[in-house]
Amino acid sequence: MGCCQSSMLLRVGERETHPEKEKEREKEKEKEKEKDQGYGTHHRASAGGDSGGDPDKEGVDFSFAEFSLPELKAATNNFSSEYIVSESGEKAPNLVYKGRLHNQSRWIAVKKFSKAAWPDPKQFVEEASGVGKLRHPRLANLIGYCCDGDERLLVAEYMPNDTLAKHLFHCIFFFIFHYLYSFLSLLLSLTFLFLSAGETQTIEWAMRLRVALYIAQALHYCSSEGRPLYHDLNAYRVLFDQEGDPRLSCFGFMKNSRDGKSYSTNLAYTPPEYLRNGRVTPESVIYSFGTVLLDLLSGKHIPPSHALDMIQGKNNMLLMDSHLEGKFSTEEATVVVNLASKCLQYEPRERPDTKDLVTTLAPLHTKPDVRLPSLT
Length: 376
What we know:
It is a single chain. The chain is α+β, with helices and mostly antiparallel strands. The protein has 2 domains: about 65-155, Phosphorylase Kinase, domain 1 (2-Layer Sandwich), CATH 3.30.200; about 160-185 and about 200-365, Transferase(Phosphotransferase), domain 1 (Orthogonal Bundle). Helices cover about 40% and strands about 10% of the residues. The protein has helices at about 5-15, 20-35, 70-75, 120-130, 165-170, 170-175, 185-195, 205-225, 270-275, 280-300, 305-310, 330-345, 355-360; strands at about 45, 65, 85, 95-100, 105-115, 140, 140-150, 150-155, 240, 245-250. A hairpin with a 2-residue loop joins strand 7 and strand 8 (about 150-155). The longest helix has 20 residues, at about 205-225. It is globular, with a radius of gyration of 22 Å. The protein starts with a helix and ends in a 15-residue tail after the last helix. Its EC number is 2.7.11.1. One of its GO terms (molecular function) is protein serine/threonine kinase activity.
């Protein structure tokens, strides 16, 4: 089967040399089979144990599986272009497909790497298994992998309601005039009048606060589980589930591989210390979180240096997305702006930690019934 064949043979050998434990193991297998609601057809195992009564973990599927290549080919119609949900490019250097496994109604997301990305199969399996132990409702959880010959694939929960970037950056105007900040107010006003009739409904303020809090909670959980490093956190990594709630893609927790950089975005958005030493640290993740806060505030991708100039010039309201039409709390916006400013500090030691993020944002989440607008 590829990467894990030797480990399977080892387990067989163990059973032969310890026959007195065979019956006990068989009983345990039967119990696991009864509990199993996993995705794959083999190597199912608990990735995190039960929730221990933790309400934050209720409803999270804890199974993690090794998938066969034929399974994933069948699920994605032989990796058909019609099943691609994330194109290869600067923001997503590897293709992501949606798929549906045989005899299962739920969809999955399959990320396809080249062998060059992970030449060592053992390293790939170890890294995937490590990330697969993370289980939280704020994550688009990793549920399995495939390591077969030259194939390297990750399998995750599928999020059907697109990315934060898709919902926020829906106005072409913002890409064309991205750096013309001196004319921003006038251009926004004129363009809004012209485009508003045909534009998708914007994300309301309460949902933006939810995104900020939920992603902070995801980062804090992962940090507490010994996985504080997230590679290239940006609005494309924030996904919306079936209920329209934001989740953080698990793919960003995989270590940097040979085929790409830890930061695929423009250098203007890259943590300054990464430019110096090329290393991702917990503090650099906080910096990237600050850029996501700027996205949520402005509805566009503003270079941190420009945003900090506005904040230092007491022009906080110039940061705010005009599509909100003033429907937000100035006090709440000020809290988020100040937090973004702290996250974007040049010196890593001056940035908050993940606990500080959650503590600051939690009191702002006061509308549990807020819904994500449709993109159609």
